[in-house]
Amino acid sequence: MKGKSRAHHVAGYLTLSQVARKLEVLNPWICNRIYNGAIQVVKDGRTGLYLFPDKPATIERFRELKEGKIRNLHF
User: Fold this and answer.
1) First CA to last CA across the chain, in angstroms?
2) What is the CATH number of domain 13-74?
3) Is the C-alpha dihedral spanning 37, 39, 42, 48 positive or negative?
4) CB–CB of 45/10 below 8 Å?
5) What is the share, in percent, of the chain residues with pLDDT greater than 70?
6) What is the pLDDT of residues 37-66, one digit of tens each?
7) Per-domain residue ranges for the chain?
8) CA 38 – CA 71 distance, rounded (Å)
9) What radius of gyration, in Å, describes the C-alpha atoms of the chain?
10) pTM, to two decimals
11) Contact (CB, 8 A) for 20 and 14
12) What are phi and psi of 35, to 5 degrees?
C-alpha cells in the first residue's frame, strides 16, 4: 500500500527510511538511486527491506553521494 509505513528495527542495520531521516531526504531520493544503480543494495531475504550497516561510515558515504562527491555506493 502506497504511503504505508512499516516500523522495523533490525539490530546492526538501518532501514531505508532511517537513512532518509538521517540525511534529511525523502525516501524516494534513495529509492530512485537504488533503481538507477547509483546505490547497489539487495533486499534482505528475511525482512524484505533494504538494510544498510548501522555505522557512521554508512551515513558519511550517503552524504558524499548526496553532495555529489561520489557517484556510487555498494552495500
Assistant:
1) 26
2) 1.10.1660
3) negative
4) no
5) 91
6) 999 999 999 999 999 999 999 999 999 999
7) 13-74
8) 6
9) 12
10) 0.87
11) no
12) -65, -35
Task: Check the CA dihedral 18-23-28-29 and report its sign.
Answer: negative
Q: Could you tell me the three cell numbers for 42?
A: 539487495
Contacts with 44 (C-beta within 8 Å, 6 or more apart), sequence order:
10, 13, 50, 51
Residue with cell 525523502: 26
State the amino acid at position 13 in one-letter form.
Y
User: Angle CA(32)–CA(67)–CA(33) in degrees, nearest 5?
Assistant: 10
| Cell numbers found for residue 31 | 529509492
Question: What is the β-pairing status of strands 73-74 and 39-40?
Answer: parallel
Helix (H, G, I), strand (E, B) or coil at 38: coil
Confidence label for 6 from pLDDT (cuts 50, 70 and 90)? low
Residue type, 39: I
In single-letter form, the type of residue at position 74 comes to H
